[in-house]
Amino acid sequence: MTCRHLKLILSRIRALGLTRPGGPAAGLPDDFTVSTSDIPYLPGHAEPSRDLPPEIMRQLCDQLPALECQHGVNIRTIVELAIDTGRRPDEICTLAWDCLTRDSDGSPVLIYDNHKAGRMGRRLPVTEVTATLITGQKQRTRDRYPRALVSDTEAVRQLIRHRYFQPHVTPLQIFNRATDPFLPAVRLHTLAVLAALDARELRNHVLVITRHQMRREDITQLNELVSIRLTLLFTYSGIDDKRIEPYPSHVAAESLKLMSAPSPRRYRTILYWRPLVPGLNDSDEHLDRAHKLSLFADATVFTGLFYRDEIAAYYRANGLPEPYGQTARRKIVPETLERRVLTAFADSASLFRKTSCAVSFVHGLPDYNGPYGIRELCDICPLGQLDRCRDAHRIPSAGQIHDAARALPEARGLTVASITSRAAAVTGLPGEQPRYYLQHALNFQVHDAAHPHHRRRHGRADVGWEAADD
Question: 81 near 135, Cβ under 8 Å?
């Protein structure tokens, strides 16, 4: 007998009056009953098959990249999960954060709620491909909400104790790798870190790279910093294609204008014009807009695209015309594009190829990377800046390079391959950071001998410069 049968029998006993005195069920209490809530749901019956024909499924799958281009990766993920699991859109959109689990054998399982049938916490075995979709969406969600790994105070403490940090020497970039320093969730941390560095009376260059909307109160707070040499670099591309540049460039443009307006001010502003990409933002109209915007900034830096394998794969997957026929480990600015930029900015006295050149210029200091010996790099620099860099230019000896490297255990294998008036070429360093340490300590270019800098490339990729003389 089931609880449903028991409920039916009790109802009939009472309907027939069998619980009256003298009846066969006399004395049966009224509260001895089975309510609807006591009865579990019946197992669901399999729905009739509504599978789409294989040829339709193939067409849907083929169009997933186009769907992502038009509506974003989140919508594509929803559709892919629907294809993989057969679940309804409302079930997918209400999946819990911990919806993905593993069976005892390690196989992935999706936990979902079937609201239509009132069956919660259902378990559905899924493939590893589907599991990867879910974990990818979780990571994108985390990325939208940056979280601090340590307190602001601890972050500053670890920074100034790092072996690569040299007080008053090492240029710093704040929150530029993992997030935007002026996102709402990050803004207060950025301001707190800047204030903490300033309170220590450090004179280091501090670069804050942003494309986010600045506020008027930021002007007041940043003007209170008296020691650090603060530079705001506003990333602006002018690219109109949202598949390439989903965040509108006009936001950075308006922020640049807002933060550049006060006079006097202690911080400096730079139009960070990047990346320049043939066919996307190199028309005469694009160049003209950038030139007009540059008039608001203290200086302008232009640079190209890191066209690496991941970016090339994105272009191909989304049906975008590839700007170059090959990838490169350095930024690409073809010679013809550079000439057009220089022509468009012919009347500018504050256009630079290198970030360090512009940052040093706006603070009236020689370039902290010491590139003065690379004469073709400086052919667009203002005369006053050339004088500063010339006066600071000192060619180190091999002994001085080794002396500077003694503070770094990882530099024990350092070998000085050559020294010229342009740069020192070295080998034996495990990565770029030790080389940057030496470059800043010596105020002189230190290059990796395995990746030589060719003349007139300005440290960029060779793509588009095949006709240049080495």
Answer: no
Q: What is the dihedral of CA 189, 191, 195, 198, to 10 degrees?
A: 110
Q: Which of 422, 421, 425 is nearest to 456 (CA)?
A: 422
Q: What is the pLDDT of residue 108?
A: 92
DSSP string across 57-118: HHHHHHTHHHHHHHH-HHHHHHHHHHHHH---HHHHHT--TT-EEE-TTS-EEEEEEETTTT
Rounded to whole angstroms, the Cα distance separating 357 from 215 reads: 27
Q: Residue 448: what are its φ and ψ, rounded to 5°? A: -80, 120
Which residue, 398, 387, 397, is CA-closest to 364?
387
For 296, how many CA atoms within 13 A lie in the half-sphere containing its CB? 20
User: Which conformational region is residue 224 in: left (phi greater than 0), alpha (psi within -120 to 50 degrees), or beta?
Assistant: alpha
234-344-460 Cα angle (round to 5): 65
CA 143 to chain centroid, in Å, comes to: 8
Handedness of CA 329, 458, 396, 441 (dihedral sign): negative
Look at phi and psi of residue 428 and say left if phi exceeds 0, alpha if psi is from -120 to 50, else beta: left
Task: State the burial class of residue 235 (Cβ atoms within 10 Å of its Cβ: 0-12, 13-18, 19+).
Answer: buried
What pTM did the predictor assign? 0.72
Q: What is the pLDDT of residue 141?
A: 84
| Residue 332: C-alpha distances to residues 155, 349, 435 (Å) | 34, 24, 22
Asked if residue 39 lies in contact with residue 2, where contact means CB atoms within 8 angstroms, the answer is: no
Domains of the chain: 3-38 (no CATH), 54-143 (no CATH), 152-365 (3.80.30.10), 367-470 (no CATH)
Whether 146 contacts 186, CB under 8 Å: yes
Distance CA 109, CA 46 (A): 20
Q: CA dihedral in degrees (167, 168, 170, 172; nearest 10)? A: 100
Listed as ranges, residues in the chain with pLDDT below 50 are 468, 470
424: part of which helix (H) or strand (E)? strand 424-427
List CB contacts of 214: < 8 A, sequence separation 6 or more.
Answer: 182, 255, 258, 259
- pLDDT at residue 350 in the model: 96
Q: Which residue, 158, 146, 143, is CA-closest to 193?
A: 158
Residue of 96, 85, 246 lying closest to 77 (CA atoms): 85
* Contact partners, residue 199, CB within 8 Å, separation at least 6: none
Give the pLDDT confidence score for residue 468 in this predicted structure. 47
Q: How far apart are CA 462 and CA 465, in angstroms?
A: 5
